[in-house]
Design a protein that fits this description.
heterodimer, A: 115 residues, four-stranded antiparallel beta sheet, B: 111 residues, mainly beta, six-stranded mixed beta sheet, five-stranded antiparallel beta sheet, 55% strand, globular
């Protein structure tokens, strides 16, 4: 597609439920990132994928969070047993390659609300 | 720890005036700085970047200034327009893939 696509755009769930957020990066981009943005805050790095290399999961806040990237393209971020503090906008970004400091192309995000 | 912060959380300017958004960073090893613009309901969009071996870089209506001595970064927008209203993030790259974002400055443009 023309840009990074994320779905759903909005997700409302109950505390304790699992959720899956999807990201479809720009075609040809080998690097994919997940960030979390809480209300009025900056972007918190979560996880990074580059090609077939093992992902860097250093930003995941707890073991309830996981992500995978299938076939080097689409990525899914899964949050298990959601908590209210998980409410945020989850942003996905992609870039051409893992060069030193590449500019990122972001999707519009998934607004997650945990009731 | 590493941090990228902003001097002002909000900035209000008159249409046609120039805007200056400031940013402080703490990691002297950072070698790449980026400004992103985020409009309501959208993801951040790249505006301009600068490497640490430069002091100034200009784009279309935007200029980024880097002062490494005091670890300060600024974004100047010339002839600010209503479409410039957004949240602006400075971000910092430290030679790897991880980009560290600041909290953002919200720019209001008054007609």
């Amino acid at each position: 597609g023309a840009g990074v696509s994320q779905s759903p755009s909005n997700k409302v769930t109950e505390k304790g439920k699992d959720v899956e957020l999807r990201c479809d990066p720009i075609s040809g981009h080998t690097a994919l990132y997940w960030y979390r943005q809480s209300l009025g805050q900056g972007l918190e790095f979560l996880i990074y994928f580059q090609g077939n290399s093992a992902p860097d999961k250093s930003g995941l806040p707890s073991d309830r969070f996981s992500a995978e990237r299938t076939g080097g393209s689409v990525s899914t971020l899964t949050i298990q047993r959601t908590q209210q503090e998980d409410s945020a906008v989850y942003l996905c970004a992609s870039s051409l390659a893992r060069a030193v400091n590449e500019k990122l192309f972001f999707g519009s995000g998934t607004q997650l609300s945990v009731l | 720890g590493e941090s990228v912060g902003l001097h002002l959380p909000t900035l209000s300017v008159q249409e046609g005036d120039n805007s200056i958004i400031n940013c402080a960073y703490s990691n002297s090893a950072s070698d790449y700085f980026i400004w992103y613009k985020q409009e309501s309901g959208k993801g951040p969009q790249f505006i301009i970047d600068i490497r640490s071996n430069m002091d100034k870089r200009q784009g279309q209506r935007v200029t980024v200034l880097l002062n490494k001595t005091v670890k300060h970064l600024s974004l100047q927008i010339a002839a600010t327009q209503p479409g410039d209203s957004a949240v602006y993030f400075c971000a910092e790259g430290t030679g790897g893939f991880k980009t560290i974002f600041g909290a953002g400055t919200r720019l209001f443009v008054k007609a």
